[in-house]
Amino acid sequence: MAILYALVARGTVVLAEFTSTSTNASTIAKQILEKVPGNNDSNVSYSQDRYVFHVKRTDGLTVLCMAEETAGRRIPFAFLEDIHQRFVRTYARAVHTAQAYAMNEEFSRVLSQQIEYYSNDPNADRINRIKGEMNQVRNVMIENIDKVLDRGERLELLVDKTANMQGNTFRFRKQARRFRTTVWWRNCKLTFLLILLLLVIIYIAVAFVCHGPTLPSCI
């Protein structure tokens, strides 16, 4: 899975978050929120080990995600933009006064759904390429996390790879069941057509026997 963790925050106040695997990314993300300089709108990325924390700050609202390094920048920032728009559209002015985790129960489900979509659906990247909305991401420099966290503050990033593999296994089984269902319906349709064709042939044969010129009528 490309994206493993995400949160939405106002300053250092986390309003909603979700993680798709067992990890301490939440703790490190909160450290980043405290250390990211300035209050201006910005897009920044910080790498740690084989993972990258991508941060998008717009109008005082910060959306952050942790993704695998192989995910690049376009998909994570497309995800962040999508989450920002959904969050503002859903909660509007409440964003500026909400207490910590006030939206977590409801919006964590949205984070989960969109993490799944941007991590596994090829259309997520294709749509953004067509729209051409992520060109500005090319200018986002990926810096080491030591840029914002002192070495004494930095925590080792722990990611449960087993849980991640289990998630991949679940998706594979789900796709396999969907494929088997599709094949089953296709076979049913083919069987129905063959039975229908056989009935038509039998009907024609019976009609020919009963009404043929050399045989007496069956009536």
Automatic annotation (TrEMBL):
Pfam families reported for this sequence: Longin (PF13774), Synaptobrevin (PF00957)
One of the GO biological process terms: protein transport
Keywords assigned by UniProt, alphabetized: Membrane, Protein transport, Transmembrane, Transmembrane helix, Transport, Vacuole
Subcellular location, record wording: Prevacuolar compartment membrane; Vacuole membrane
Superkingdom of the organism of origin: Eukaryota
Membrane topology: Single-pass type IV membrane protein
Family of this protein: Belongs to the synaptobrevin family.
Function: Involved in the targeting and/or fusion of transport vesicles to their target membrane.
Protein name: Vesicle-associated membrane protein 711
Record organism: Raphanus sativus (Radish)
Underlying gene: LOC108819162
